[in-house]
């Protein structure tokens, strides 16, 4: 996949966006870029799933998030409620990422 010149800058904004530390025009510019750039959107999806799984493990509420991609779309303001509508990815992709994130979280817990 081709990465645009400005992608490095926007990819450095992924974590601050997910942590709610990105505001104003930076947040708006980030969202617009991610909606139009497949590479950066996929990067955001991966981080979002990892953050979500780690948050679930941290809160230990027993409640599982059933649709990581829909919660990401909500954060991006698209409000579609379906899996990765922006790029036509299906639920299987989301579940694969969630599985990898779960494995990573398990490994991290073993190391702690």
3D structure, described in words:
By secondary structure, this protein is mainly alpha-helical. The chain has one domain (7-111). 66% of the residues lie in helices and 0% in strands. The chain has six helices and no strands. Helix 3 (24-36) packs across helix 4 and helix 4 crosses helix 6. The protein is globular. The termini are far apart. Mean pLDDT is 75; it is low at 80-91.
Helicity, as a percent range:
55-70%
Oligomer: single chain
Radius of gyration: 14 Å
Structural category is mainly alpha
Report the average pLDDT across residues.
75
Total strands: the figure is 0
Report the uncertain regions. Answer: 80-91
- Shape type: globular
Terminal CA distance = 35 Å
Largest sheet composition? none
List SSEs in N-to-C order. HHHHHH
- Number of structural units classed as domains: 1
Q: Which strand-content bin applies to the residues?
A: under 5%
Total helical elements: 6
Compile the SSE list and pairings.
Blueprint: H1 7-11, H2 14-18, H3 24-36, H4 38-59, H5 68-75, H6 91-111
Write a brief caption for the model.
The chain has 112 residues and is an all-alpha fold. It has helices at residues 7-11, 14-18, 24-36, 38-59, 68-75, 91-111.
């Amino acid at each position: 996949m081709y990465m645009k010149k400005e992608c490095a800058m926007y990819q450095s904004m992924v974590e601050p966006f997910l942590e709610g530390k990105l505001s104003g025009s930076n947040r708006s510019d980030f969202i617009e870029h991610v909606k139009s750039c497949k590479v950066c959107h996929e990067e955001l999806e991966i981080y979002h799933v990892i953050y979500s799984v780690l948050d679930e493990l941290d809160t230990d509420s027993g409640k599982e998030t059933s649709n990581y991609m829909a919660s990401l779309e909500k954060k991006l303001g698209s409000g579609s409620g379906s899996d990765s509508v922006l790029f036509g990815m299906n639920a299987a992709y989301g579940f694969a990422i969630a599985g990898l994130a779960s494995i990573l979280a398990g490994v991290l817990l073993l190391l702690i």
